[in-house]
Amino acid sequence: MSDRSVPKYLNTLAQFASGADINSLSAGARERARWIIADCIPVIAAGMQQREMKAFAASHLACAGAGNAWVIGAGRRANAFDAALINGTAGTWLELDEGNLFAKGHPGIQVVPAAVALAQELEVTGCDLLLAVALGYELSSRISRAAQMKLSIHPHGTYGVIGAAIAAAKLKRFSSAQMIELINCAATMGMATSRQTLLDGATVRNIFTGHSGYMGLMATRLIECGFTGEIDSPAAIYGKVLSDTFDPARVVAGLGSEWLIAQSYFKLHPTGRYAHSVIDALEDLLARVPGARLDASQIERIEVRAYMLAAMLAEKHVVSSFGARFSVPFALASILVHGRSGLASFDDAAVANPQIQALAQRVDLQEDKTFTARFPAEQPVTVRIVLKDGAAFEGRCGVTKGEPANPHKPEELRGKFFDLGEPVWGGSITQNLFEGLMGIEDISSFREFSKRFEL
């Protein structure tokens, strides 16, 4: 491919990716990348404890090649490809992974598993890993932002392949020319993903993120072997296949000064992101109730008005724990019955609870188009609960907790790390791992660091 045939925006992306160093990151991007790596690891470990994931890990590792990379939460190691596949799949099981409304998806869990696994095989520093994650996240998010993917497509398993590939290529120190070929190859290696999988509670959806990590690593291997991509694969895939519009200028607008990674969100509730806005409105409502608790048996109806993507999570007949995470009626009913949000509010026992199922039927969830018009800068929702005696309470959400304009406190994110990590690893390992990841820039060899922990 001659230089004249390379689109200008791709040249800009490739030069930025190959030339950036740790000082290229803004303070906000650097801090957020550190937290994203730290957040992903215990989320993966907790997801690995699910019955299906235990079976998948055992079955896949039986024929996988050896390697140094953690299979997180399984106490095993494998080669980077297989570790990225399994870890990426486990990372979305509990719906606790980080995301980004401007990237329109969850870049972190598609980039981090591949980057961490490869960093355990190469001789790279913690700074190298941090930078690779930040660049893979940032550049793939910009490609997603520049497109308007069809609503029927689930964003997992699409642009995440590009992000994982860029992160891996940065760790391998690809040149600008190699980065161009890499992006063009990786862009066409995504999946044909369906958003209906999450609405149906279909757990095949979780492999989408594992696919991103695996195929991102594969893309770097293809480039090393001399494979080539089309001249402008992102424009072809995101302007004609997955989306009908793609704006190359928006990919590079503000590159190096505006960091999408610094505008991400973290989750404290194990549900689809748009349900969080509704849960926030419920919590606002309960704060106005004496004792902050309502007797679920005395609730006549629950009226919810929300922006479109939250209003889509309207399934009332939930039949699985995974499906429960994408149902606003179930989430409200289970939290009201349990008195709090947590993993127990969405487990199999909660799904089998007739009181929860009955209360979910009394939820009226509707889109408010004026709320939709304010999204994504705001995520407005109102929740109104009417009791059988006629009393009514109302709560609101304007900006969902965890967004940059309404961020979680560091102690809340630390609490999440320990709440998920300690049941899997115990207190000592969890504490040492957390401290190490918070000081990731000081790690001289991530491969040697990783040998201290059997995760």
Describe the protein's architecture and organization:
The strands form three sheets. This protein has a four-stranded mixed β-sheet with strand order 6-5-7-8. A two-stranded antiparallel sheet has the order 1-2. Helix content is 50%, strand content 9%. The chain has 455 residues and is an alpha+beta fold. 53% of the residues are buried. The protein folds into two domains: 3-268 and 413-450, Orthogonal Bundle (2-methylcitrate dehydratase PrpD), CATH 1.10.4100.10; 273-397, 2-Layer Sandwich (60s Ribosomal Protein L30, Chain: A). It contains 22 helices and eight strands. It is globular, with a radius of gyration of 22 Å.
Produce the secondary structure layout:
Elements: H1 8-19, H2 27-47, H3 51-61, E1 69-71, E2 76-78, H4 80-90, H5 108-119, H6 126-145, E3 147-149, H7 160-171, H8 176-186, H9 196-199, H10 207-224, H11 233-241, E4 243-246, H12 248-252, H13 273-286, E5 299-306, H14 308-311, H15 321-324, H16 328-338, H17 348-351, H18 354-360, E6 363-367, H19 369-374, E7 381-387, E8 392-397, H20 410-425, H21 427-438, H22 446-450
Parallel strand pairs: 5-6
Antiparallel strand pairs: 1-2, 3-4, 5-7, 7-8
